[in-house]
Amino acid sequence: MYISTDYVFDGQGAEPWQPDCKNYAPLNVYGESKLRSELAVAKLLEKYFIVRIAWVFGANGNNFIKTMLNLGKKYDTLRVVSDQIGTQTYTFDLARLLVEKVFEPLPDWQDAVERYIMKCISK
């Protein structure tokens, strides 16, 4: 299992990339290095699983959702950039995938965000 990133793509478009997408176009050295690593894994191993994660959120550390919840407590109106498209990844779901090796699709991001917010509110 190899942990990678969506930085192997160029960030253009309005639809999520499909799991088998090969339209690589890294925009920076980090993305290029992750892509080279992915290709090496694919070349060296007969069986492999590449996990591309992005926009991670969870109980620990800072993340976009936690920041918005905290700012929402201070301000009536929030303004955020609207030129980025991404899919949130809940660390709880990611851990199940990586540790328990549950290779079913992760729950959709709306479900994950709702569970996370309900957990934050109940604290």
Describe the protein in words.
The protein is mainly alpha-helical and 123 residues long. The chain is built from 4 helices and 4 strands. The chain has helices spanning 29-44, 64-74, 91-99, 109-121; strands spanning 2-5, 50-53, 56-57, 89-90. Strands 1-2 form a two-stranded parallel sheet. It starts with a strand and ends with a helix. The model has no long low-confidence stretch (mean pLDDT 89).
Question: How are the elements arranged and paired?
Answer:
Layout lengths: L1 E4 L23 H16 L5 E4 L2 E2 L6 H11 L14 E2 H9 L9 H13 L2
Parallel strand pairs: 1-2, 3-4
Q: What is this entry, summarized?
A:
With 123 residues, the chain is mostly helical.
List keywords for this structure.
single chain; 123 residues; mainly alpha; two-stranded parallel ribbon; 4 helices; 4 strands; globular
- Model regions low in confidence, pLDDT < 50 over at least 5 residues: none
Helix count, DSSP H or I runs of 4 or more residues: 4
Taken from the alpha-carbon principal axes, the silhouette is: globular
Share of helix, binned: 25-40%
